[in-house]
Predict the 3D structure of the following.
Amino acid sequence: MALFKLEKKAPKGPSGRWDVGVGEDLCKACGFCLNVCPTDVFAYRKAPNKIGWFPMFTAHEENCIGCMLCYQICPDFCIDVTLKNGGPDMAPIPPNARTAPAKP
Ligand code: SF4
Ligand code: SF4
């Protein structure tokens, strides 16, 4: 099993473009995401989840810059970070852009 989630490099960008999801039912409240986040997106809930921990939630999603540190560090795979609405960076590549470069 891969120890690092290589498919998500750290795209950094302006805030307000990112959806940050926390699987609160799986969260064990370790606080890693809270401590690693550079923009104070996370906070603890005041009510416990099904397994008895006070889980993390996204209190200030609008602050997220998409650095992916929380996604990388969560030991329980609770967090996902994606561009809102698929985002312009996720648009499909037009077919005519896939042609091989001309040889000299
Ligand atoms: S990707 Fe995660 S760690 Fe990075 S700014 Fe967003 S919420 Fe914080
Ligand atoms: S790193 Fe994961 S398990 Fe730990 S508090 Fe954050 S969401 Fe919960």
User: Anything to note?
Assistant: The CA atoms of residues 42 and 57 lie 6 Å apart.
